[in-house]
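[job 4471] stage=fold_predict status=RUNNING
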Amino acid sequence: MLGNCQSGALSLLIECICPTMKRLSLPAIHTLDKKKPEVVWSIVRDVDVVIHQPISDSFQEIGINALKLKFPNKLYISFPSIYFNGYFPNLIYLRKPAGGTLGGRLRDFHDSRIVEGAIFGQSIEEIKNQICKKIPVDKVLTDVNISLENLRKREIGLDVEVTSYIKKNVFKKRLFYVFNHPINDVLIYVAIRICDILKQNVTNERLQLGKNKPDYLAKTQAPLDYSIIQLLDSTVSNDLIYAIRDNSGHVQKWPLINFIETQVDLYRSITDLEKIYNFSLRRNEKLEG
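[job 4471] inference complete, writing structure tokens
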């Protein structure tokens, strides 16, 4: 299994619902040293099937095209990098121009409205009002559909898609903790499609075991955008809590006002914040364009 943080969670679920398959997983691709491809080669050499997300040629000898050339007799099954920002239109990474990502209370994730509030000297109350402001339903639906269409485009040419599942369930239940951390149900949908390709039967009993697993990607959680809440099924609640969880299950939470205060304190200590923010916006536009 090769990919980002989603690949590790997906491999655990495939192993759960289809125990005839033995999992050999690697750390998230961006944490691997592309100058030491032997780490990846040693795993790929010993497997029959390589399940992977698109990994570009920028990863050199551990990119998918390079691996297919080196190991042409393996079965390769591709699935998308599952990115959906329809719930969190203001959630972003702050990439540094010199490299790396600015961290914060919510690890690598930041709310652009808080960043802008800190840059332009807004009060905590002004930032809170901006976050709590609702936008028209038509605009929300348009943004959600754009995010779904962007995901669908990234699936072109891949063996497995997930857009149809997200589109069907997007307002029925919360599907993401942050824009690239889906709940297990989303990953189980992908896992079943992969098992179908491999002609591996998934029993109802094994499927239920998978569904009973705690969400593997729940370690970072942002509140749903206020404008989204009005469209969700009435059974879906949003407590405006920002949270992080560690491997032991410990949860640290921040209510909205407290989170804004701590983030603003951080941002105002960073002299080149505006430069980092503008660089991140330009980079994001280029990626989504």
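[job 4471] summary: Residues 137-155 form the longest helix (19 residues).
[job 4471] exit 0
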